[in-house]
Amino acid sequence: MRFVFTSLIFIAILTSMTFAYPALVNEGLHTGLTLTDLNPVRSGTDDPDFECDPDSIWSQPFEGIEVYTVSDAGQENQAISADDFAGLTLPITGIEWWGGELECCWAPCIKTNLDFIVTFYEAGSLPGDVVHQETVTAIRTVTSENIFDNAALGPVLKYSAELADPVSIDSGWVSVQAVDSGDCWFLWADAGFTAGTQEYYQDNGSGWAPGGYDADLAFCLIGSISDPHISLLPEISNRFGPADSIVTHTFTLRNRSGVTEQYDLTITNNSWVTTITSNNPVVIPDGENSTVTVTVVIPPNAQSSDFDSCILTAEGDTSGLQASAVLNTEVGDYPYILVDPDSFDVVLTPDSTHDDIMTIWNDGTEDLTWSITLSENESRGIGNWENVSPPATPVQWPASTFAEGKLFVIGGFTDTSAGTLFNGIQIYDTSTGIWSNSAAMNAPIFAAVAEYYQGSIYVVGGYSSSAFTATNQVQIYDIETDTWTTGATMPTARGGNVGGIIDGMIYSLGGAAGGSFPEENVAYGYNVSTDSWTTMNDGPVSSGGYGIILGGGTAYDGKIYVGGHFTSLHNQFYQFDPTGNGVWTTLETPPSAFGNLTPSFIGLETEGIILGFGAGNNWSETGTTFAYNPSANTWTNLNKPMTVAVLGGAAGAGNGEVYFYGGTTGDGPVDPAPFMKNSFTHFPWLTVQPVLGTTSPANYNEINLHFDATEVDGLGTYEAWLLIHSNDPLVNPWYVPITMTVSTDPTPTPGPECLNHGDVNFDGVITAADAQLAFNIALGLYSPTFEEACAADCNGDGVVTAGDAQQIFYTALNLDECEDPIL
To answer: Helices 802-812 and 768-778 sit at what angle, rounded to 10 degrees?
Structure first.
């Protein structure tokens, strides 16, 4: 169980500061994404995931959530990050560091190659000559924190590795560089700003230069400490429990005294009944560890927030060495989530499937509510479109954007024959399913560019009448205050324009000033921060001499993708790169039956595609959904038709879903207005059911996982994160890495042989978690593999019983050992 003592929670409110981590583009490394006004919540200093090893001779651990810098040997992003150290008196035998794993564009991924190049350099104002370099294989630990305190970016990770050869250097620099990362990058975390040593340096191929932030990198150097010592970890253990209950604290006692030592364990300063439940005294060989458990009985009359604080002391009989730890126990009612197993690694043949079970336990005192989402490195599919109700006012050719969990449908024709426009925004709240209307606009429009930025929606240009009279206004809607203001006017009036937003710059591409549609290839950039315009390079024209008008556009990976034309009905497709004054590239055209009249494009960077729908060939609506792969420059029919074939509606994406509202079939807005949604976080090879539920205290829910190798293309490894969100106040979400390997080998790769009896989850150590898993097997709550059942059969009689689980628990406490198996 994981608890944090309330009086020891440290909350850093970091406002009015800018935090950044690098984005990557084809041209190299740059600081492309900035997050501001973050409020990360840190675990207490008792969390071993954020402490250096007790044998460390240089301690610079992860202390905050501020900067992540690429240090990667991948082909796309050759970057080396290094930081300095000084004052060592012993050889370096190991290294620990913290960081994260992300792919473009800012989605969690799982590195399959945990090899890192560790290099030590001579001291100086920047890294000097190489003293020692070797490739190590790291051990990765998923911590309880999220990158930037944002669950969507995945967890902060701790890495540790031993060096093959000790390095004797008293001061210098060290770099850690991931090997063969591919699209899954390693980002090194900082140890806090101005931690007392020189700012980290980085080499992106042009030589060493300051990293750009006054920060140090998070790492620890481990050495061969000659002085005898012991340690009791964690130094502070915080636990909650209800009145009239028993709470357990668990510690690791490490013996580095130089000899096999017997330790006497004592409890002092306690006011509640406190008992040492493991061996006392405990005998530990030199260099080894022992688990110490302590139980605290909370009195039946204890009130909420009452607590007891006492001290656990271990003293060696021979050496006299001592170590102490603080136990804090507080009365509190909370849900506590436990997930078993905490990872899945499945091997299948191309035509096979596999079913497995994951168990969600509530080890707390209040109901646990939970929901499950999936985040995958790469996904190409979507689900079926479904109708959503109720619709609002039917509109044709509105502008639209998605932000803050809401779809914003801006302006648009309500009656083309009468030339009436909707004067405002129709807002759909995806969390409640309720529509609402904004305050009236300064001037109603249709066919404009609309983008969200920092709490406001910017509506750029558009047509203000059925005569296709364009406007050059920038109308700004403040979501919180429901008010409108105006920005600097566009250099020329433009309606039917398309575009997107990149790094605070809104780009208006194409469009025309009036119904004759002249000058359709102009391009402008609007800087939101400075409220100013820049004229960009004109776009290309089609073979018929036409640009873009009443088409579609979307931002994707730092570029804008646009296409469509109202008069010539061409379906050419272009990429606009804002580098310099703008670089245009003509791309593969969408299929002939799609894309030439008011297509809707949605860039889905987590999926690796641009979704296209809600378009037609002339006024012939197709209702077809296409995907464009920017990496391959190819279009694919996803065979997921819309429920209603319309064009010229409002599209938006967020919270794992794509929305399309309104539109026309050529004779005014369709009434009643269609409203559809689709899911783009789709995993054809993995099905999880159920995906939400409530678990009462001391109970559990089983989650069915179905792996299907027939739903993927070709052999290889497919990876995903399973994120379990819950009302557990301390761990949210819980991350479960999932791997499915499709192989021609008809026999899945076997687990460890049944030799290390009692290690049911094969993590290399026997703990209470192994006993719990064996107990689940005995009760029929978990279907084991042959290797798991063998390891759980502690007495080797061919049957897993509660007695086996108890024996494994004794083994974990060093009270006894499992017998050799009888197979």
So the answer is: 180
Residue 220 CA to residue 57 CA, distance in Å, equals 8
Q: Residue 776 phi/psi, 5° resolution?
A: -60, -40
Q: What is the pTM of this model?
A: 0.45
3-state secondary structure 796-811: CCCCCCHHHHHHHHHH
Residue 791 belongs to what H/E stretch?
helix 786-792
Three-class SS state of 514: coil
What percent of the chain has pLDDT above 70? Answer: 84
CB-CB contact of 574 with 563 (8 Å): yes
Burial class (CB in 10 A: 0-12, 13-18, 19+), 221: buried
Ranges assigned E (strand) in 367-491: 368-376, 386-387, 399-403, 406-410, 413-415, 420-421, 425-429, 434-437, 449-453, 456-460, 474-478, 483-486
Q: Tokens standing for 57?
A: 């001779």
pLDDT for the residue numbered 197: 58
pLDDT digits 0-9 by tens, 512-556: 888 777 768 899 999 999 999 999 999 988 767 778 888 899 999
Q: What share of the chain has pLDDT > 90, as a percent?
A: 31
Query: What is the per-residue pLDDT for 155?
Result: 84
**How are beta strands 155-167 and 41-42 bridged, if at all?**
unpaired
pLDDT at 495 over 90: yes
474-481 contacts at long range (C-beta below 8 A, 24 or more positions apart):
474/526, 475/441, 475/442, 475/443, 475/445, 477/425, 477/438, 477/441, 479/403, 479/404, 479/455, 480/455
Per residue in 626-656, pLDDT (tens digit) is 888 887 788 877 777 888 888 899 999 987 7
Indicate the residue type of 600: S
What integer pLDDT is reported at residue 655 of this predicted model? 76
Q: Which two tokens stand for residue 299?
A: 């009195």
Backbone phi, psi, residue 810, to 5°: -65, -40
CA distance linking residue 329 with residue 267, whole number of Å: 14
Q: What type of residue is 201?
A: Y
Of 368, 369, 258, nearest to 316 by C-alpha is: 258
The separation between CA 468 and the C-alpha centre of its own chain, rounded to angstroms, equals 44
